[in-house]
């Protein structure tokens, strides 16, 4: 097992707060990059949430305390930029420009520096507040989530922030690989819109407005949603006729042999499937359907999911955390604890 990660030798500076930026750089740190948080006197505000919250986004990093608004801080930033490959920042666009955290401001120190800006609506999109839940509401996610008879709702975790962090990490690495310095601009709003891909395409090309369906039902596939059972709920996702044939045989269901038929007779199909699934529990159906290759899973809460996947839990100092989802042959990440404020300078 090699000790050096695939990003060993890559040096990344982070001016990040809360989630999107720190999550992006933590994914890179897990792959061996040297990530240094540049923090003000009070530190990243996520330090005030809880120690475990901060650890979940900042394991394996370094911390330098620096006041970027001061002359001394700007000089120190230049020294750090001169020996780094990239800088990732998530602040309001006006703050990014005011603190000189753009490529145009930093290229004099390092022509090859990659500067990644995570903002709500883009570097030229203004300073409107853009927290995760606000973005989910404004980009259409909330309108698609929840029971049609009730109010719109949210997924329950920071999907916009996490997705944007991963997208920013991809953009950062792409520009490093290109061998050119430059500005990378990633906005939460555009990332979420891009992830509503087939919904957007259906509207833009076919004029079909997306609609919220009961039990989180899929727009194109039937049956593909959450179903009640004799005990608990089951997620069933049948995307083609082969899956349906195997399911129908196991559940004792007749008819609806083609996808087109199932889509056109959605209500009938859902009634028949709901009745059939009432004969067993969610975990019972899972045990019966999975060996047949049918996508099905009992609805579990997070503690249950963690209990069933103990190999995903890692130790970073005193913290138990979910480890990197990227598994690379021959490499095992070293999960170091999150840094103390200013632990590595300042």
UniProtKB/TrEMBL annotation:
Gene3D superfamilies, alphabetized: Crotonobetainyl-coa:carnitine coa-transferase, domain 1, formyl-coa transferase, domain 3
Entry EC number(s): 2.8.3.-
One example GO MF annotation: transferase activity
Record key words, sorted: Transferase
InterPro entries: CoA-transferase_III_domain, CoA-Trfase_fam_III, CoA-Trfase_III_dom3_sf, CoA-Trfase_III_dom_1_sf
EC primary class: transferase
Name of the protein this chain belongs to: CoA transferase
């Amino acid at each position: 097992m090699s000790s050096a990660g695939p990003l060993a030798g890559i040096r990344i500076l982070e001016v990040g707060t809360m989630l999107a930026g720190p999550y992006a750089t933590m994914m890179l740190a897990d792959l061996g990059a040297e990530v240094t948080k540049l923090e003000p006197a009070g530190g990243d505000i996520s330090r005030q949430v809880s120690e475990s919250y901060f650890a979940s986004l900042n394991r394996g990093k370094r911390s330098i305390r620096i006041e970027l608004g001061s002359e001394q801080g700007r000089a120190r930033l230049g020294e750090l930029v001169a020996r780094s490959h990239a800088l990732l920042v998530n602040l309001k666009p006006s703050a990014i420009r005011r603190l000189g955290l753009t490529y145009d401001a930093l290229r004099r120190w390092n022509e090859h520096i990659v500067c990644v800006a995570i903002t709500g609506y883009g570097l030229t999109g203004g300073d409107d507040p853009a927290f995760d839940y606000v973005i989910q509401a404004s980009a259409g996610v909330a309108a698609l989530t929840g029971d049609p008879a009730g109010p719109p709702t949210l997924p329950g975790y920071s999907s916009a922030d996490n997705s944007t962090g991963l997208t920013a990490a991809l953009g950062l690495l792409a520009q490093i690989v290109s061998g050119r310095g430059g500005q990378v601009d990633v906005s939460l709003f555009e990332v979420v819109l891009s992830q509503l891909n087939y919904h957007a395409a259906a509207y833009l090309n076919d004029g079909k407005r997306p609609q919220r369906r009961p039990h989180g039902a899929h727009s194109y596939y039937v049956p593909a949603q959450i179903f009640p059972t004799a005990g608990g709920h089951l997620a069933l996702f049948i995307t083609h006729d082969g899956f349906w044939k195997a399911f129908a045989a196991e559940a004792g269901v007749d008819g609806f042999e083609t996808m087109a038929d199932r889509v056109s007779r959605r209500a009938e199909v859902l009634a028949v499937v709901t009745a059939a699934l009432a004969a067993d529990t969610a975990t019972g159906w899972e045990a019966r359907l999975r060996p047949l290759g049918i996508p099905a899973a009992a609805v579990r809460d997070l503690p249950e999911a963690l209990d069933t996947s103990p190999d995903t839990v890692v130790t970073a100092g005193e913290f138990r955390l979910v480890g990197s989802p990227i598994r690379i042959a021959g490499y095992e990440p070293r999960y170091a604890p999150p840094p103390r404020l200013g632990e590595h300078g300042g």
